[in-house]
Each structure stands twice: as structure tokens, then as C-alpha cells.
Write a structure and sequence with these properties.
With about 500 residues, the protein is an alpha/beta fold. It is globular. The chain contains 13 helices and 14 strands. The N and C termini lie far apart (about 100 Å). The chain has a ten-stranded mixed sheet, with helices on both faces. The protein has a four-stranded antiparallel sheet with strand order 11-12-13-14, with helices on one face. It folds into two domains: about 400 residues, Alkaline Phosphatase, subunit A (3-Layer(aba) Sandwich), CATH 3.40.720; about 80 residues, Arylsulfatase, C-terminal domain (2-Layer Sandwich), CATH 3.30.1120.10. The structure holds magnesium ion (MG). The site of magnesium ion has 6 residues, from loops.
């Protein structure tokens, strides 16, 4: 009898323990909360710059760990090969041609612009804010530098960072507007000396060469509080300061769902790193900068673990465009991909992309096609929010959580508002080719479009159009349908200086 009672007693413990372990997650405070989203966005980081993407010397253990435990994507793209349009697409889930956030003459936004991201756009921050998320941005904005276009006017509660690229706002150099006037008057040749002088400054950078401000902007009960906290920015400490700000944002918002967008200023030239990372890598100043960036990612993931937030946080790391090849060894590498920043070759638009969410993401290397615009749609889906109409982003949550096939089978490559190439499955069709700024090849409009098989030829070296006439025909039909599917908006960047005319 005693033995039977003992068995029943033990069975009841096992049974209750079983019930308890099933029931426990629902009782954990915050477990029913939608996931936090952290979006880490490097500037001009190339496809080949991380250890996990094949770099032989740059040591990126924190990113590699996230990649090994989560998903590392091989075929992930941005919507444009330069900063501003790429960032606009990331935050709106829409092609730059749809939003007007592109330029045919002026590729990105410059200081003292009269416009910026339109109010009519529904940013990821606005959409998540409406779902009760705390929203913060730490880093480079580059979607309009006038206060009415600041991130706090586009759904972010808090912003600490720089309004445009870290090489804009030169000291003792002509402004962008003055240079444009010189080119209009005397042709491109007239500015070559200015650029030669600037190149020396890029390659031996000193903080005082630039007058870039660090802005802190907050949404308050009565409106907004904007202040310049440092000018010129001490760029040596930019990654360290951004990391402190990001960690503090996470700590302040640990008890509610949050969205943290962290667009790093680095490794965009001029390159700067803190004293601790000077000479720390095998790869010179570029290697030092990458390793400090990796340290920053490590500090953020450590904070998530310490606060028990890792298992309820989707963390994404990617880059805004390919490496700036003009910058000698101060620019990164696209690895085996062709060309770099500014082009619709793979090196300009295919970027590293790492997704981490311990316990939720099905780990592995993913060779499905993904776009930065999909981060918008995926985040909203995971947050349980409704999706706006006319999105170009697609929901990747099935790939992330269950390794399903990506809903994205194709991808349109735009540069300067012009559709230049199209990918469908393994094939990429080039209508127009052109190298990065001041790099070969010269612009060619192909009478007969060039076809590459990207899986067999990721370096885009071999034209296989003659062997696959049906593929070319089918892809041209898709391009026609895409062009007919939307009218698009006029370029806003080309009009950013209309007020000075
Ligand atoms: Mg960039």
C-alpha cells in the first residue's frame, strides 16, 4: 500500500511537472508580447567583409555566432545600390521609384535639403508604434536633414545620431551645391582637382575635416525636442557612443515591445575607430573598423541575454549597399561578387544578412532570395499588424521560422530610378550595365540583354542568353508587366535644392 501510494505520489509529481513545463511559458511576463525587432544596418559593408561570408582576416566572432545559431542568407539584396534610396526602401517596404526617394541626377540626399521622406509614407517605426512598440533609432538617418524630416517625425520616439553620411559637411571645401554649379558651368573635369584633394583627406582622415553634427531628438508630450549634442562629431568614438545609446535604449524599454533601428555610420569613409581598436586587426584601418562593429553587435546581443530578452527578439544584421571601391583599402570587399556600391551588379546590391532569434529561427544557411524591403513586411507580420497596400516587401517569416520556400522568386535592380536588371530564380537579365562611380565598365544599354546564371556564375562573367532564349523571353515579359504595374513617383532627390534656384 505504502509502495502504491509512493508510486501515485511520484506519478503526480511527474504529471504536475509535465503540466507545469507546458503551462510555464504562457505565464512568463511578457511572453505573449509580440517580438522586439532590432535592425542593425551597416554602411557600405561589402558582401565579403565578414568571416562568415569568407573574409580571411577580419575577425567577426559575434556576427559569426549569430549567423551560426540563426540564419545566414547568401542571396539577400537591398533595393538600391546607394544610401538614401536603400534606407527609404528598408523603412517603407517600397521601391524607391514608388516613394520618390531616388535621384536621376542627385543619387542621395545632401545637407540643407529642402525635402525628405514624405509624410504620406507609413514607416516601419510608425506601423510598430501603432502596435504599442517603443521605437528608437541610433545612428545615421539620411532621409532628410531638416527637422521636419527627422526620424522623430516618422514614427521614432527617440533618435541619437547623424543626419547624413559622415563625409558630408566638409570644412574648407566647396559644398555640394557649389560643386554642382561648377560642373554645370565648366563640366566634370573642373571638379577633378577638388576630388583629388578630398581623396587625401579620406585616406588620412582627421575629425576636423568634417563638421558633421550629432543630433538628439525626442518625441515629447507637447511636440519634439531637438538638440545638436556635438559638432563636429568625434568620429573616433562614433561606434562606441552609438553602442552605449543602443544598450541604454534596450534597458529603458525592456518591459514593453520595442523596435530599435541601428544604422551604423561605419564602415563608410572617412573611417574612424576608437583607441581600443586602433591597430587591433590584421586588416589595417578597415579591419579595425569592422572588428569594432562586431564588438558593438556583441555588446547588443549580450545585453539581450542579460535582460532575458534574446528569446523574444528578432535581430537582423545587414548593410545598406556594397563596398565603396573608389576608396582604395579604406573600402570593403564584395568577395567574389562583381563590382560595388553604386552598381546593379551583384557587388552593389547583394549584402550579408544574418537573422537571429534563439529558439524561434530554424538555423542554417539560406539561399532563397530576400530583399531588405521584406524586413518591413516580415516584422509587421510577426507583430500581428495589418499590412498597408502597395508594398514591394514580402513576408519571410515562413523561411525564418520553418525554412519554407521564400515567397520571393524575383527581384528588380534599379539605379538612379532606372530599371537596369531583373533576377528570376537563378537567372539575372541585364538591360543596362555600368560600373561603380568612376570605375569600369562604362554604361552600356544592351541591344540584346545579357543573361547570367547566378548560381553557376555569381561573379556575372558569362553571358548565357544564347543558350536560354526562352528564359530571356519569359523574363522580358515579367519586366514589361512590372513596368505596367505602377506609375511611380517623380524623383524627390533631384528637387532637394529647388529652393536655392
Ligand atoms: Mg552606404
Amino acid at each position: 500500500m505504502l509502495k502504491r501510494n509512493l508510486i501515485l505520489f511520484l506519478a503526480s509529481i511527474v504529471f504536475s511537472a509535465g503540466c507545469f513545463s507546458n503551462a510555464a511559458p504562457a505565464e512568463v511576463p511578457g511572453a505573449k508580447q509580440p517580438p522586439n525587432v532590432i535592425l542593425l544596418f551597416a554602411d557600405d559593408l561589402g558582401y565579403g567583409d565578414l568571416t562568415s561570408y569568407g573574409h580571411p582576416y577580419n575577425r567577426t566572432p559575434n556576427l559569426d555566432k549569430l549567423a551560426a545559431q540563426g540564419q545566414r542568407w547568401t542571396d539577400f539584396y537591398v533595393a538600391a545600390p546607394v544610401c538614401s534610396p536603400s534606407r527609404a526602401a528598408l523603412l517603407t517596404g517600397r521601391l524607391p521609384n514608388r516613394t520618390g526617394m531616388y535621384g536621376r541626377q542627385i543619387a542621395v540626399m545632401f545637407p540643407n535639403a529642402s525635402n525628405g521622406l514624405p509624410d504620406s509614407e507609413h514607416t516601419l517605426a510608425e506601423a510598430l508604434q501603432a502596435e504599442g512598440y517603443a521605437t528608437g533609432i541610433v545612428g545615421k538617418w539620411h532621409l532628410g536633414d531638416a527637422p521636419e524630416f527627422y526620424p522623430t517625425r516618422h514614427g521614432f520616439d527617440y533618435w541619437y545620431g547623424i543626419p547624413y553620411s559622415n563625409d558630408m559637411d566638409w570644412v574648407d571645401e566647396p559644398t555640394f551645391v557649389e560643386l554642382a554649379a561648377l560642373v554645370a558651368r565648366e563640366g566634370r573635369q573642373a571638379v577633378s582637382q577638388v576630388f583629388a584633394k578630398r581623396m587625401r583627406k579620406y585616406l588620412e582622415p582627421k575629425v576636423e575635416y568634417w563638421n558633421v553634427p550629432v543630433v538628439r531628438s525626442q518625441k515629447t508630450v507637447s511636440g519634439f525636442k531637438d538638440e545638436v549634442v556635438e559638432r563636429p562629431a568625434n568620429q573616433h568614438d562614433v561606434t562606441k557612443n552609438h553602442t552605449k545609446e543602443a544598450v541604454s535604449f534596450i534597458q529603458r524599454n525592456k518591459n514593453k515591445p520595442f523596435f530599435l533601428y541601428m544604422p551604423f555610420s561605419m564602415p563608410h569613409t572617412p573611417l574612424f575607430r576608437s583607441a581600443e581598436f586602433e591597430g587591433s586587426s590584421l586588416g589595417g584601418i578597415y579591419g579595425d573598423v569592422i572588428e569594432e562593429l562586431d564588438w558593438s553587435v556583441g555588446a547588443i546581443s549580450r545585453t539581450l541575454r542579460e535582460l532575458n530578452l534574446a528569446e523574444n527578439t528578432l535581430l537582423v544584421f545587414t548593410s545598406d549597399n556594397g563596398p565603396w571601391l573608389l576608396m582604395d583599402n579604406h573600402g570593403g570587399s564584395a568577395g567574389l561578387l562583381r563590382n560595388g556600391k553604386g552598381t546593379t551588379y551583384e557587388g552593389g546590391m547583394r549584402v550579408p544578412a544574418i537573422f537571429s532569434w534563439p529558439g524561434r529561427i530554424a538555423p542554417g544557411v539560406v539561399s532563397e532570395i530576400g530583399s531588405a524591403m521584406d524586413i518591413y513586411t516580415t516584422s509587421l507580420t510577426l507583430a500581428g499588424a495589418d499590412l498597408p497596400d502597395e508594398l514591394d516587401g514580402m513576408d519571410l517569416s515562413g523561411v525564418l521560422l520553418r525554412r519554407e520556400k521564400s515567397p520571393r522568386d524575383g527581384l528588380f535592380y534599379y539605379r538612379s530610378g532606372e530599371l537596369r536588371a531583373y533576377r528570376k530564380g537563378p537567372f539575372k537579365l541585364h538591360l543596362i550595365s555600368e560600373g561603380a562611380y568612376q570605375r569600369p565598365p562604362d554604361r552600356v544599354v544592351h541591344d540584346k540583354p545579357v543573361l547570367n546564371h547566378l548560381l553557376h556564375d555569381p561573379g556575372e562573367r558569362f553571358d548565357v542568353a544564347a543558350q536560354h532564349p526562352d528564359v530571356v523571353k519569359d523574363m522580358l515579359k515579367d519586366i514589361e508587366a512590372h513596368r505596367a504595374s505602377f506609375t511611380g513617383n517623380e524623383s524627390l532627390f533631384d528637387r532637394q535644392y529647388d529652393h536655392l534656384r
